[in-house]
Amino acid sequence: MRRSIATVSLSGTLRDKLQAIAAARFDGIELFEPDFTNARMSAAELRTQCEDLGLRIELFQPFRDFEGMPQAAFERSLERAEKKFDLMEALGCPLMLVCSNTSPLALPDPALAAEQLRALAERAARRNLRIGFEALAWGRHVKLWRQAWDIVQRVDHPHLGLIVDSFHTFSLKDSPQGIADVGEKLFFVQMADAPLMGLDVIDWARHHRNFPGQGQFDVVGFFEQCVRAGYSGPLSLEIFNDVFRATPNRRIAVDAMRSLLWLEGEVRHRLEQAGAQDAAAAQLLQRQELFDPPPVPAFNGVSFIEFAVDGAHAESLGELLRQLGFQFAGRHRSKAVTLFRQGGIRIVLNQQATSAARERFSVQGPSVCALGLRTGDPVGALNRATALQSARYEAPTGAGEQRLPSIVSPGGVIVHFVDEALGENGLFEKDFILEAEDGAAGAGLQAIDHLAIGLTPDRLDTWVLFCRAVLGLDAADAVKFADPFGLIRSTGMSDAARRLRLVLNMSMSERTRMAQAAQASGGVGVQHIAFASGDLLASVERLKATGLRFVPISDNYYDDLPTRFELDAAFVERLRAAGILFDRSAQGDYLHAYTEPYAGAGFFFELVQRLDDYDGYGAVNAPARMASQAQEERQ
Amino acid sequence: MRRSIATVSLSGTLRDKLQAIAAARFDGIELFEPDFTNARMSAAELRTQCEDLGLRIELFQPFRDFEGMPQAAFERSLERAEKKFDLMEALGCPLMLVCSNTSPLALPDPALAAEQLRALAERAARRNLRIGFEALAWGRHVKLWRQAWDIVQRVDHPHLGLIVDSFHTFSLKDSPQGIADVGEKLFFVQMADAPLMGLDVIDWARHHRNFPGQGQFDVVGFFEQCVRAGYSGPLSLEIFNDVFRATPNRRIAVDAMRSLLWLEGEVRHRLEQAGAQDAAAAQLLQRQELFDPPPVPAFNGVSFIEFAVDGAHAESLGELLRQLGFQFAGRHRSKAVTLFRQGGIRIVLNQQATSAARERFSVQGPSVCALGLRTGDPVGALNRATALQSARYEAPTGAGEQRLPSIVSPGGVIVHFVDEALGENGLFEKDFILEAEDGAAGAGLQAIDHLAIGLTPDRLDTWVLFCRAVLGLDAADAVKFADPFGLIRSTGMSDAARRLRLVLNMSMSERTRMAQAAQASGGVGVQHIAFASGDLLASVERLKATGLRFVPISDNYYDDLPTRFELDAAFVERLRAAGILFDRSAQGDYLHAYTEPYAGAGFFFELVQRLDDYDGYGAVNAPARMASQAQEERQ
């Protein structure tokens, strides 16, 4: 299936955009007319540039305010169309998008609309051009794809067809059901996702669309309908997004391609599942050239976390880990790399033995440079990731050393896929001289509950898509909470079994600690690591006794707590004494505490305990931590 | 009238907020409960701090989900309230805000709500505390102030009254008419403005409120109703705004105070106007202590513009002005300051003789450091401005030199008020050795049409309020347009007679030229100066002949123009040859062209011609300029 993207979706000059689009291996573009109008480049020059880059100009868009107009306006529009047809011929572009009329002059008369579109199709036919008619969600009379389809059917002209756009359908809560019956009259498909927002449809459309898999629409269901209509491409993106407009276009173009590959893969998967009972689906799979990535493997938690450090930090971070109840577990046979363990948690301190660790340290100082994710199928995970445009990471390994299937996540942290058959230590047995386990319980920390990743605003959608497409995680609803210097937006991502949890945090202000840390990390950095305890009160009491410093919580917080939840007074006093925060949802309770940030670096640790099926991350308590830290700084 | 602000309106820790609030000379605060809950400061400490700063704690807010609940929940809420009463007593705070219930458990039963609020008022009375009941726009059953008022009347208890908030009224398109009849039961008034937005009322409320005079609500009409109710304070601000949360709080607190002073002044003005026919209004004026600023004087255009330059820039900018058809008009008697003139335009190049020019040059390089605004009452203008919290600017003047009433605008550009009786040259006759005018027409530039000011996002509302409150300008609807690297938001501000026009531009992206210039200027800088010509085609043709460089406009723009407007083909070709942009509204036409930026500095010139009553600024054409400039850079 040919893949395409509208030029409006990216930042930069038209020339820059084309280069980014070609570099991300698209087959073609939708030319957004203002991009051409403002370019100091003739149609012939643009055509040559596209040809040189291997890009087709699939669609010229938009042609506005055409159908259902009074006669005089209609005639002027036909003249206008002829000028645009001249341009399309010069560009070598075969198809024009006519979006439904928004003019206050438009008449509510589908028969008139049909008559006028027939005249336009007739003129297009003389030049062997085609017209696609699309319902704009804010069209004056034609808002739904079915209304546009009704008019296209009335016209019944070979040079007039239907264009559908998932945004216009879902933003009006309309259903794509029935697009499958449009058949060969479906001339073009535009796919857009978006977050659900209580916003005017026009503002929503012009500022907040994003790529399939980044938002909350049923884009897979929509595109399945198109494929079932027999549509075989181009599959195209027309994305108006304020952040994308302001982000270097190479990065956004990679996300764009990833979103289409993911979308095709999801639809293929659905058709395959239907295939046994559904001959049509099986046949479509034969014919449609849908992208076929390997399935998402099941992940089973975080196998290890690796920090990039220098010698001094190896010492002080090692000391902090010991304070947290970790044991020194071993040393790499040939490199300055050490291992710490507690319960099922493994932490590696890498004195920059690998290039990835070196690079991360040089950007961010001591910080997480790599994660290991546990899975039954590491090679499958790698193949899935590279099929979806992740770069493979080849660690420099010595002779006979363990080699892991690994990728570079957006922004540079390395993700290793670790065979769960190796167990907790198997991975390290070959390369490390391991100490014997002494059976000490440490502080009772058992596993990594979640990782929180701090992102600059231009990285959030990239990471949502990476988590969804490459790792198979779903996004919970985003929450916003207040830091003393601005709002933070937080999105939990996890698999259905809740075995892998990542929290994507973004500061909406430039003045918060989190924003500064995200900036300092080059846009993406692990902000905190949450360790799970089976008895958090006991763990914290033990750790406080060793002198570990937690972020102090205001007494006022504990005075207020019993007004929010029905809690035993003695329990509240234990929380107060330990400085543990509390949250409750319909599913269960959550206890958590934060350590002070590690020696001025951007990261810290959280200790958590989930009771029953609590599924969140205590976001409601984050302001108590952030306010406390700010007060510390100001004193 | 005592003035107050909710702590949620500002950034920072609670301690920081109190200091900023006191520094801006507020009399009190609304304590937003989470600010206290998260503060590591006891109630007694907070009380002492407020007393030390001369701040009352006027209101404790919010107490949620109280009225109209099933019995068990009601009883728990009473217990909760008693805990908060304890806290209020410790704080010395006399009034609690109860906002209407949003709980799904709330019952649609005003009689029950009244009964429960009576019980709460009764308990408050025992401690000599008071309860104010406020309708939240998204309350489950009580959304409008009249519904809340109905319940307060049913209760009829001396310790229960009504709280009104302009946001909750206007966001539901409800009217404040009738608040005047509430009388002494009006316990507290919260004033918020907001831009009109097609957004969910909750998101709108929580992220986009702003100070009176910064938005589009009829805040004056609302507050007039409160004053007519006999309300005598506190006048308070409760503003949830994402930008304010992320901006240094001293700056925002100054805006907050300015907004209240302006609001009081506007209501006073209305009552004065009504006073002759309206005895009640006259009496209120006697009693109410409404702030009384001098009226806004009429402005009559820009008298002069002053650039801060060094010697080299004085030369090259002088050369550019000559190219633009300006004449050298004279030299300051004692300072390195020169004057250029054309038509009614006067431009001063100041080689940093004054401290303001020196400071501006050191921040921004060559740039506008001062404006002169023509008015019949310069001293009145100064008094108005200082009454509304503008800092007076005292220029260092030599013996016998002209001294102007002057202020510092937000961000540092100096605004001088120039007596229009001085005519075009009178201002300069004393201090300058003037050349005789040679009568040459120059390029036919006659006046300054407008100034465009480039602002960082945290400066926009500040400037809207400064323009409205200090200069008496009104805001037109904001427009957004696309730079190749992000969106620009532009707001025209002008007086009713259209004699003074300022355009406030803000980049929504950090990567546009405009954003970079605004950053480089320290947040506020004059971005371009638009000169009016009576015959722009002639002016541009003459200037091009002198070799002046304009931003080149794409041929495609002119190919497209006849499809947008009915224009004579020969006229379009003249526009193309001259590189002039064209816009048309229902009121008239607009022709304009942009010079290339001055030697890498952040500013440039625009040449414009308004035909008939065109009232905009050609925003639709800005993308053609910006795309062209970006292409230039990339080649």
TrEMBL record, chains A, B:
SUPFAM superfamilies tied to this protein: Glyoxalase/Bleomycin resistance protein/Dihydroxybiphenyl dioxygenase (SSF54593), Xylose isomerase-like (SSF51658)
The VOC domain extends over 447-610
Write out the GO MF terms: 3-dehydroshikimate dehydratase activity; isomerase activity; metal ion binding
- A biological process (GO) annotation for this entry? 3,4-dihydroxybenzoate biosynthetic process
Q: Which reaction does it catalyse?
A: 3-dehydroshikimate = 3,4-dihydroxybenzoate + H2O
The prosthetic group or cofactor this protein requires is: a divalent metal cation
Instruction: Provide the leader sequence positions.
Output: none
Q: What organism does this protein naturally occur in?
A: Azohydromonas caseinilytica
- List the lineage, top down: Bacteria, Pseudomonadati, Pseudomonadota, Betaproteobacteria, Burkholderiales
As for what it does, the entry says: Catalyzes the conversion of 3-dehydroshikimate to protocatechuate (3,4-dihydroxybenzoate), a common intermediate of quinate and shikimate degradation pathways.
Its EC number(s): 4.2.1.118
Its annotated pathway? Aromatic compound metabolism; 3,4-dihydroxybenzoate biosynthesis
Top enzyme class, one word, equals: lyase
Record-given protein name: 3-dehydroshikimate dehydratase
Which residues make up the binding site for Mg(2+)?
A: 450, 528, 606
Which superkingdom does the taxonomy of this entry point to?
Bacteria
**Keywords assigned by UniProt?**
Isomerase, Lyase, Metal-binding, Pyruvate
User: What residues does a divalent metal cation bind to?
Assistant: 134, 165, 190, 238
